Amino acid sequence: MWTNTDFRDGPALADAEAGPDLMHNEKPTDRVLVIYDDQHLHQFLPMYFSKVGIRAVYSDNVQDGYGKFLAAPVEMVFADMGVLGTWTLACHIKKQYPNIPVVLMMDQRGEYYIERVKENGIDSVLIKPFGLNALKNKIREIYDIGD
User: Fold this and answer.
1) What is the CATH architecture assignment of 31-142?
2) CB–CB of 71/29 below 8 Å?
3) What DSSP string describes 52-95?
4) pLDDT exceeds cutoff 60 at 60
5) Please, what is the Cα angle at 140 between 78 and 70, to 5 degrees?
6) What are phi and psi of 61, to 5 degrees?
7) Are 135 and 105 spatial neighbours (Cβ–Cβ below 8 Å)?
8) C-alpha distances in Å from residue 10, one per residue of 6, 88, 136
9) What is the pLDDT of residues 13-37, one digit of tens each?
C-alpha cells in the first residue's frame, strides 16, 4: 500500500501495488471528491455540482482529500492542478483504483500535463475557466447522466 503523504508533484508511482476495489454499484452514486484551493472554483463549484444533482465532498489540499477518498467510496474525483501534489495523487488513485474516473482541472498552461494525462491513465481534463455546461458535458463524457 502506498503510504507517502507528502504528495509533491513528481513521476507516477510505477511500482505501487494494486489497492482493493472500492464499493461500486451498477450505476454510479452521486458522490464525487473535489480537491481545489482556487477561490474562483470555491465560489461556484458547490453550486454547479448541486445544479447537476451530484453530492460532492470537498477538500482544499491533497492530504485531506486523500483521507476523504479512503474514508468513504467516491465514484469520481475532480482535482485542481493548482493544488500542490495533485498530479502525484491523481496518478496514484488511477494506479490503485483504475475504475474510479479522475478529471484534472487546469488552465491553459497545463499543456505539459495534458500530454501525460492518457499515458498515466487519467480520464480527462477540464480546462479553466469553465462553466456549468462544460462541467455537465464532462460528467456525461464519463457517465451517462441525464439532465
Assistant:
1) 3-Layer(aba) Sandwich (3.40)
2) no
3) HT-EEEEESSHHHHHHHHHHS--SEEEEETTSTTHHHHHHHHHH
4) yes
5) 35
6) -155, 160
7) no
8) 11, 6, 30
9) 333 333 333 333 334 446 899 999 8
